[in-house]
Design a protein that fits this description.
Length: about 210
Amino acid sequence: MFEAREFLRKKLIGKKVNVTVDYIRPASPATETVPAFSERTCATVTIGGINIAEALVSKGLATVIRYRQDDDQRSSHYDELLAAEARAIKNGKGLHSKKEVPIHRVADISGDTQKAKQFLPFLQRAGRSEAVVEYVFSGSRLKLYLPKETCLITFLLAGIECPRGARNLPGLVQEGEPFSEEATLFTKELVLQREVGHLPSCFLYVEG
């Protein structure tokens, strides 16, 4: 759900949080109706005294898992989650609203060279664009989400060249160049999932 993702991104990216492990779900094999799951660590995450799970539920952006009465593996704040869900249902928040659910359609042109080239003049005329960094391929190659244009597109930072990272080729793994991992990590820590507001398009090259 787009709204839930955006709530978490804006609330948590770049922030320090408190994590309390509530329980660990052991791995489970696949059945005819349920896929296999690896071991899962389930925890309560808080920031500034706010329980993130409870905040999601209260806004109608998540629902509470129901457990058997004899199942002790549950959130340490289970009662609070149920109360938050009851309020969200009563107030018609998010998933519980009777209004039509908004549909977010995003055009992914990051792998379409022709469409990306057609889109470039539009960005250049706009002069400045706001975006969210969806993925970092390398120190200088990023996938951006442009909310106003509702599209995903790949950008190269103009004027620089970062070391190439390791690549999986048919039959072999090509080792990365020196400092490629450091460059990628630096860019991730700086901009991944962050808003890069008023991004000058003249500083970027659009790649399909």
